[in-house]
Amino acid sequence: MPQTAHSLNAPAHQPATLRARIVLWTPCLAMLLLSFISLVDRSILGILSPTILRDLHLSAAQYGAALMVFSICYMLANPVWGWAMDRLGLFWAIAIAVTLWSAASGAHALMVGLLSLCVARGILGFGEGATFPAGLKTVTETLPADQRSFGLGLAYSGGSLGALLTPLVVTPLALRFGWRASFILSAAAGFAWIAAWLLLRRSGLYRPVPAVKRMAAVPPTQNSTPATRKKWNRDLFATAAVYGLGAAPLAFGLNMGPLYLSRVLHLPQATLGHLLWLPPAGWEAGYLFWGRLADRRRLAAQRQGKPAPSPLTLFTLFALGCIPLGLAPLLATCSWALPATMALLFLVMFLSGGFVVIALAHGASTQPAANTGFLAGFSISGWSLVTGLLMPLVGSMFDHGAYTGAFWLVAALPVAGVLLWRVLSSPPVPRNLHTPV
Fold first, then answer.
1. Buried b (16+ CB within 10 A) or exposed e, 209-218
2. Residue 166 within a domain
3. Residue 116 domain-assigned (yes or no)
4. Could you report the per-residue pLDDT of 197-250, keeping only the tens digit for each?
5. Whether the Cβ atoms of residue 157 and residue 32 lie closer than 8 Å to each other
6. pTM of the model as a whole
7. DSSP H helical segments within 304-402, as ranges?
8. 8 Cβ partners below 8 Å, 6+ apart?
9. Is residue 387 in a domain?
10. How many folded domains does the chain comprise?
11. 6, 186, 191, 220: which sits with the fewest CB atoms below 10 Å from its CB?
């Protein structure tokens, strides 16, 4: 008799059928595709920004203001969508969100100036606020605890994959048919996903595991999170702080990286299309590598009857690894400036992917299971707030040629995030009950 997704929480010696594995991982793969489309939609503007800003006669500061509008709407929307998924259900909430942002993505093809850019960007940001709360909600509802970090990395890796592939597809399309055609194509992809999502619901492949079975995967020696814990607590703010500041280089690399390469290293739009997949490749690798590593650390602790290890060591590693980004403008006159800059952008996005996965996976373990959608929404709102404040500032610094200061500012933010996480997170349990950091 074929196993269901629920049976995958059984002891490891019971073999899982291929059908059971498909049932288990299909919802996660649907979220991968969703995050892929989401990042395609938002990446097009950054990739084609040199051309679009020239055609619409906009400055980098005005471009940064439009990015701020996106970030503010995205920030406000994330907890709203997270709450809606926790209280009203994932299926229809995400269907409505994708419909909204796909229409907004297509509206970018009608842009004529700053106002229309800001309106389209704001609606896109509000709709896309549902993407990552949906990913975390799906992972916590369908996967056992010892597979969730990798599952989260897989679900979110669609975003980095979208940012990786978009330059390779969008640039030749824009060069042949104009940049407006790229936004029409991205809107069509969103509506196609909605049709596939409806088919997934009818097929019965989305089968949330009951909470009692999900919790069965957590050993009794771990500190379980009380279901009655208040929604607003210090660990919620700690997760938002380390996510928001730690992953700031992602927004910088996607939105300001192309402008830097165009203005300082003098790369034309066609050349950018061949290079801009490299930093998101680091992001993609970061999601999968750090997600798998986190699951292995958790599993090793479980086998020893200990709680999951603190993420402080990994957070510190990520933050220190981002500091060399500040050196990029100092290398601009070197003959190897381009490969060095691309390598630094790859590195910080690889480490930022680790910030995202580890912060949310650890944060979910500190919150009641019913609040995971809100946790993701609130945390990503923290990232949106940082991005919304950072992008106009960086855009203004670019307009004034202050590239060194802009790069050092971005390089310092992950360090600030780790320090805030350390201050805000709940005190560790006594040493004899806790795995050493």
1. beeebbeebb
2. yes
3. yes
4. 888 877 766 655 544 444 444 444 444 555 556 778 899 999 999 999 999 999
5. yes
6. 0.74
7. 312-322, 337-365, 372-399
8. 16, 20, 21, 24, 144
9. yes
10. 1
11. 220
